[in-house]
Amino acid sequence: MELVLSIAIGVMTTCGVWLILRPRTYQVIVGLSLLSYAVNLFIFGVGGVKSNRPPVLEGGVLASTLSDPVPQALVLTAIVIGFATTALFLVVLLAARGLTGNDHVDGRNEKP
Amino acid sequence: MPFLGSLASAFILNTTSRQLPVFLAGVVALSSVGLSALAYPYVTDGNVLRFHAEWLPQFGLDFSLRMDGFAWIFSMLVTSIGFLVVLYARYYMGDDDPIPRFFSFLLAFMGAMLGILISGNIILLSIFWELTSIFSFLLISYWHSSAAARDGARMALTVTGIGGFCLLIGMLLLGHIVGSYDLDTILASGDAIRNHPLYLPTLVFILLGALTKSAQFPFHFWLPNAMAAPTPVSAFLHSATMVKAGVFLLVRFWPVLSGTYEWFFLVGLAGMLTLLLGAFFAMFQRDLKGLLAYSTISHLGLITTLLSLGSPLSTVAAIFHMLNHATFKASLFMAAGIIDHETGTRDMQKLSGLFRFLPATATLAMVASAAMAGVPLLNGFLSKEMFFAEAVETHADSVLDRILPYVATLAGAFSVTYSLRFIHTVFFGPPPVDLPKPHPHEPPRWMRFPIEILVVVCLIVGIVPALSIGPFLETAVASVLGARTPDYSLSIWHGFNVPLIMSLVALVGGTLLYMALRRYLATSEDGPPYFRRLRGQRIFERVLVTVSWRWARLAESRLGTRNLQPQLRWIVAIGFTAGLLPLYLAGFERRPIVFSQIDPAFVLIWMIGMALAIGAAVYAKYHRLAALVMLGGVGLVVCLTFVWLSAPDLAITQLLVEIVTTVLILLGLRWLPKRNPDLGDVMTLRSRFRRFRDLLLAVACGVGMTVVAFTVMTIPVPDAIATYFLENAYAQGGGRNVVNVILVDFRGFDTLGEIVVLGIVGLTVYALLRRFRPAPDSMEMPEQQQIQNRFDEEQPERSPGDMVRDYLLVPSVLMQWMFPVILMFAVYLFIRGHDMPGGGFSAGLTLSIAFLLQYLAGGTRWAEDRIRILPLRWMGAGILTATATGAGAWLLGYPFLTSHFRYLELPLIGKIPAATALLFDLGVFALVVGSTVLILVALAHQSIRINRLRAIEAARREEA
Question: Which Pfam families does this one have (chain A) (predicted)?
Fold first, then answer.
């Protein structure tokens, strides 16, 4: 399980980093989303990977065998904040597009 | 005390009265004099007066003050000259000058200066040192409308500021060597310091501080430029006090730092060069104050030279000369100020024959400058005599030491020359012509009074030294030298010996030199011959320009970029290195790769997930919609993973966020430009290389993340805080869903901050979109709507717009029907949140999706006709509820956000938990709804706004 998850994190990081280095704003926004998936999964994975042990207390289940709730709480806030930043970035992107007339990250199509 | 006075006069900054600030400053200064004088009995016989308060004990920094004899005599000097200067300034300052500001700065400076003198901790000393630099900057630039004042002030600040910084370094080194910042401890450990390997750097840094402050060569150039200050400031700062701070420091650390060859060489070289060059430059100044400034530099050089010799007797001479110089130079500056005040010029080629207009001032100035020249029966003579005697003695056998007597005599002759020049050109000769103020006359009685006092002191000390200054000097010297205090005699007549001959040679030589130069000086241009072109100021400015402008520009053009891509590339590269480096340095623990326990289904979904991620990366440029769909796919896979790996809360939130984000980006896609792979975009070699480099970086990051993630996940999780949360969630938080309890209870404050962020983002988005103007090529109707409208026009029985309206009719009916169901679901998620997966975040997102679907189903107009959502009210209510819940705990005497819980029995539904955390969660819920809806609606409204924009555009086109 861990192996699959870490390879997946690696692939998503690769795609995310590649995309945020691209010149078009839309590529950057997709790249950031991919990166945030990767990072969220990574933080989540720090608490260890357990199946069928959600951190919900029920009678008869030993608390210490449950999966770690702290990374989950962190990731939950991270998901919501990630949504907020994506929204903000999208709107900045649109405003920049409206102001500069193109969708290059620097606001101008470079002609070296 | 002066600080309080400064503050007080800052408060009366706007007063129109001219008397009040003067009175205040005078009282403050005078009572400081009194206080200092009262302290005298405590500091005689080598006793020390101490005051101690803890400041930052953990760093070994205490606010400690100590006053010994040396500090006392200096304090007396500072406060009494300060008082005289206040009195003088009362008459000197013009009617338009803001008096309170002046006195406020002056008193603050006095306070800082006293701070230097009596601080018992070297770091504290350093701080006061910087304060004097700052206040001197403010005082020099007091007439801030003049460019010369601004430049002079800036230069003084730069030079002394750099010096102060060096001093701080030196002090820290010193503290490091001794192990304490306490002055007493340091003064007691001289041998340890001199034998320490760090002695030389410490010495150099402290000397840099002292020499810049005392305007020693090669840092002397700021002082003449600082003469743009009002004359009282020059008299106070640049003759009596601030420039003395440097030599004061040298004396202060003389017992611990001096006596080595490095000390003699560095200090002596600087001192002798300053002594000679200062005197030489002073002869050729045209500006009265310039002459005095250079002579000050020269006299400070004399003191520095004396200190460099390292013998106790020369230190006595140095301290004595400091006092003498302060008295006669302050009086000369004041005299120069009177001349300037009465005639309107300080140019010595214009001034002449003023004796007949200003007889009293002239007499006073003559006595003072005679003291400066070292004429017998005046105080300057005594200390100069001591200097000559010390110069003849051999202390450290080197060329420097052997030439000292000749240098001393030459400099003495120069000082006679410039003193003569000052007196002769200004007061004698024919009456002046074309003065800016034609009728000079004696200044008011009390303006002359300070000069009179100082000159009388010169005379008294000069005639009966042993009776007047003797005991005080003894106290001061004893406190510095301790047991090494030598026998010295302050009498005027020592017999016909070598120093006396040197004095005579200097007097006669100086007079002859003046006769020889007289004709030349009367017509020459400003500045000394040969050195005229070599201006320290010019060099200084060039260096400044080079460092702060050229190099900065160079660095910016070489290292900086305004493009985002290189910046991001650097961030990623540095981030990668920062991750790699510690692993590389500390060694990396390899984890065995295990293939067991791998569920094929899990592998399969991640195969799909990875393929989708790569697909999204590839298609993001030309096929945005496809990339978005794939991105959503990745999100779903992540969501599945959360379900699989026992994180139901995350799965729910991820799923909902995924929906909202996708809709959001879909709404945004419409405004992006069309991009076609067939058009343009020729791949150059350079862009190929760039892509390759980026790919390499990305793969490196990916591999790194894989390795790190795998290692972290396979390392056994240490018993951390998780256990605490798991065990106490129910007992203390009253909830079974530990994640939710953490969010709303244990870490409630974080969540509060987070929802505030969410709210701010919502508002920002709204604000940004209010002024949104689409680019011209997005103004047209979307292609699909155009086709639909065209179809309507072609069919005779349809009217335009029908197709758009009826588009997706069945799904939209379904969506409308789903509204109450989703609403119910949101409530359900919310209520069960504390015990089961769910909670405020997911409930809020669900509710906003319900609203969103209505917008999608019926269009913006339709939806807003039926439901009025006021996102701002939702947001406000949310934040208020959450904060009020938290603050409610205060009322019951608990810390912020303490929660309380119990179970409520509701009819039909049964037992539900009713923790106050639930109320907090309600706030979270409301805010999430408000913020999300605000963002989405703001974006959705653009398609309504664009119709209006289009109409405006069309109207404009018709007009044209």
Answer: Oxidored_q2 (PF00420)
Residues B269 and B237 in one domain: no
Rg over alpha carbons for chain B, rounded to the nearest Å, is 42
Put simply, the answer to whether A10 touches B686 (Cβ < 8 Å) is: no
Domain boundary (B527, B548, B583) is at B527
Q: Please give the tally of structural domains in chain B.
A: 4
Average pLDDT value for residue range B822-833: 87
A109 Cα to chain B: minimum distance (Å): 11
What letter does residue B231 receive in the DSSP assignment? H
Residues B424, A40: Cα–Cα separation, whole Å: 86
| Pairwise CA distance, residues B623 & B513, whole Å | 92
Mean pLDDT of B133-143: 85
Residue span of the structural domain in which B905 resides: 737-960
- In chain A, which residue's Cα lies nearest the Cα of B707? A6
Residue of chain A nearest B562, judged by CA positions? A106
- State whether B726 and A38 contact (CB < 8 Å): no
Nearest CA in chain B to A56: B737
pLDDT digits 0-9 by tens, B533-544? 555 666 777 777
Which pLDDT value is given to residue A32? 92
Residues B485 and B535 in one domain: no
**Residues B292, B336 contacting (CB under 8 angstroms):** yes
The whole-angstrom separation of Cα B449 and Cα B84 is: 8
pLDDT-derived band at A112, boundaries 50, 70, 90: very low
Instruction: With beta carbons less than 8 A apart as the criterion, state whether B447 and B540 touch.
Output: no
Interface subset of A 9-48, CB within 8 angstroms of B:
9-27, 29-31, 33-34, 37-38, 40-42, 44-48
Domain-terminating residue out of B508, B541, B560: B560
B460 in a domain, yes or no?
Answer: yes
Same domain, B200 and B284: no
Question: What are the DSSP calls for B704-771, one per residue?
Answer: HHHHHHHHHHHSPPPS-HHHHHHHHIIIII--SBHHHHIIIIITHHHHHHHHHHHHHHHHHHHHHHHT
DSSP class of residue B589? Answer: P
Chain B contact set for A23 (CB, 8 A):
565
Q: What is the pLDDT of residues B604-633, one digit of tens each?
A: 999 999 999 999 888 888 888 899 999 999
The rounded distance, in Å, linking the Cα atoms of B685 and B688 is: 5
**ipTM higher than the 0.95 cut:** no
Is residue B514 one of the residues assigned to a domain? yes
Considering the entire predicted model, what is its pTM? 0.62
pLDDT for position B636: 93
In this structure, are residues B160 and B215 in contact, taking their beta carbons and an 8 Å threshold? no
Nearest to B572 among A7, A17, A106 (CB): A17
Mutation target vs B (from A5, A9, A14; most B CBs, 10 A cutoff): A14
pLDDT at B13: 44
B273 falls within a domain: yes
What does the DSSP assignment read for B816-884?
HHHHHHHHHHHHHHHHHTTTSS--HHHHHHHHHHHHHHHHHHHHHHHHHHH----HHHHHHHHHHHHHH
Find the length of chain A.
Answer: 112
On chain A, the residues whose CB falls within 8 A of the CB of B714 are 2
Domains and CATH numbers, chain A: 2-48+67-100 (1.10.287)
Q: How far is Cα B613 from Cα A9, in angstroms, rounded to an integer?
A: 10
Instruction: Name the pLDDT band for B316 (thresholds 50, 70, 90).
Output: confident
Query: Coil, strand or helix: which one is B180?
Result: coil
Contact B653 A80 (CB under 8 A): yes
Among the ranges given (A39-48, B506-515, B552-561, B905-914), the one the predictor scored with the smallest mean pLDDT? B905-914
